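B., you asked whether I could sanity-check this one before it goes into the benchmark set. Here's the sequence:
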Amino acid sequence: MSPVTDLIVPRRVSRRIGAIAESATLAVDAKAKALKAQGRPVIGFGAGEPDFPTPDYIVEAAIAAASNPANHRYTPAAGLPELREAIAAKTLRDSGYAAPATSVLVTNGGKQAVYQAFASIIDPGDEVLLPAPYWTTYPEAIALAGGTTVEVFAGEEQGYLVTVDQLEAARTERTKALLFCSPSNPTGAVYSPEQTREIGRWAHEHGIWVITDEIYEHLTYDGARATSIVVEVPELADTCIVLNGVAKTYAMTGWRVGWMIGPKDVIAAATNLQSHLTSNVNNIAQRAAITALRGDLSAVDAMKEAFDRRRRTMVAMLSEIDGVQCPTPAGAFYVYPSVKGVLGRTIRGAKPLTSAELAALILDEVEVAVVPGEAFGPSGYLRLSYALGDADLAEGVARIQGLLAEAH
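And here's what the prediction gave me:
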């Protein structure tokens, strides 16, 4: 061999980071915005964020905080003491879970809370049960912690809700944790208190940690009620991490304030990690979050009214499409229709065989951006957010109706 071929080219990006999949939801949203910037009439159903502005009184609190020199300096990595107290009080008020402020860690949005929760309790070789369809970030955070994702799929025929029997069938001696998300992103499914209690008791019986994502707790419809699994099963408190944030409830996605609540040793470990990773969360955003949490829920009540109206419109319109089955979501602001009845049919000369191919066709042909099911688990589904204006929602779904009406 020549000296050149004998050379070993060094790896420029680590295997760990190079293996991370791109966030499909952010990628779809970015592509839609880029096409809009080019002047194309794209309607995007990809973003998981309210289309409402942050309430004025919260913004005003941030403006006032920006002028206070105390907020121009480093603050404790675990969060401002006043915010940790406000989170503890809000959690007791809204879900009935009593946790001391010392068990709270303020994070840079919910995603950092997700990452740090897995990083704090998962070791290489540990398995994490992940009900599918799941939010696209969960498996990547599990992998970064060295864990192995074990998907437990529940389809539209069971309302996208996994059962204890399914979880038990997936459990092994290496099972360390269960990710529980209700209301769900991407499906909008909400577990009943009875289902939540059954799953919590099963996890406790087998010594399995529960990481429960409660970010959509206030966005429920048709009488559905989100219950905290640690409230339903109090004995889980020592093996449960609660994740939440201000993003969805108060239309504060860009402010990046989330939190995790858990056993003190885990919170201490996660705080130590965060002290090296990012240090404290932006102080101005923390002050705004204090004002948000100490206020009432009138802002979310107004948003829920609009979301509910859009939800019913979207489900009705999608259900009119031949080959599409659209369960009515009971929470969050997404619908997750099955499009398996459309796949394999010819549409404008193309024959999409996967939901990814169908999503690409919808974007190319009618300039509507949706997220394919591959981002959340098995193919055959699309996720559409109804957190956008009524007119755009109706126009976007009408375009999809028109395109899929041509399927044969």
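One thing to flag: Residues 56-294 form a domain with the Aspartate Aminotransferase; domain 2 fold (CATH 3.40.640.10). Otherwise nothing jumped out at me.
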